[in-house]
Design a protein that fits this description.
Elements (H helix, E strand, L loop, with lengths): L1 H7 L5 H21 L5 H25 L1
């Protein structure tokens, strides 16, 4: 997720990449070992995408003030 957005868009910066990395890794580990979820990889991609875009919006709003 980080590489796709970082290489092909101008959305987000370091903060959004770090948030996506933490959200994806943390959610995968939690769903794989804690919840025994059937598809932890797909869910971690969704969590990483949501974190990346969420922090990118916050960063953009902070820049506009």
């Amino acid at each position: 997720m980080i590489m796709a957005f970082g290489l092909f868009t101008r959305i987000g910066r370091r903060g959004s990449a770090f948030a996506a990395l933490l959200a994806g890794t943390g959610s995968w580990a939690w769903m794989r070992y804690g919840m025994n979820f059937a598809y932890p990889y797909l869910a971690s991609l969704a969590a990483a995408l949501a974190a990346y875009l969420g922090v990118a919006v916050i960063e953009k709003l902070k820049d506009n003030k």
